[in-house]
Amino acid sequence: MARIAPDGDPAYEHAAEGPDDMPSHIRSVITATSLAIPVLGGRLALGTWQGVYLWEHRRHAHTRRIVVHVGA
Questions:
Q1: What pTM does this model have?
Q2: What pLDDT sits at residue 72?
Q3: pLDDT digit string (tens) for 9-67?
Q4: Burial of 5 (0-12, 13-18, 19+ CB in 10 A)
Q5: By the 8 A CB rule, do 2 and 35 touch?
Q6: What pLDDT score does 47 carry?
Q7: How much is the pLDDT for 19?
Q8: Which residues are CB-contacts of 40 (< 8 A; sequence separation ≥ 6)?
Q9: How far apart are CA 45 and CA 38, in angstroms?
Q10: SS3 12
Q11: Long-range contacts of 15-23 (CB under 8 A, 24+ apart)
Q12: Would you state the pLDDT for residue 55?
């Protein structure tokens, strides 16, 4: 990601929330921002080699909320 949307590159100038603001927007478009996972028997129905990861694209510390929706 550092090659695709590098922090501090003048081609990505938008610093309303800091110098990592615009590159983080580009990175969030390239990666998934939401995920649907089936639940079977009270457990996530993931394959053997599957996992769920949260990748924060910002360098500066801030608070992040994760929302989980469980529907029937």
A1: 0.58
A2: 66
A3: 777 776 566 666 788 788 888 887 788 888 899 889 999 999 988 887 777 777 888 88
A4: buried
A5: no
A6: 93
A7: 66
A8: none
A9: 5
A10: helix
A11: 18/58, 18/60, 20/57, 20/58, 20/59, 20/60, 21/58, 23/57
A12: 81
Q: Residues 6, 12: contact at Cβ < 8 Å?
A: yes
- In this prediction, residue 16 carries a pLDDT of 67
The amino acid at 22:
M
Pull the structure tokens for residue 33: 């921002």
> Mind giving me the DSSP string for 19-60?
TTHHHHHHHHHHS-S-----EETTEE---TT---------SS
Residues in the chain: 72
Strand partners, 40: 43
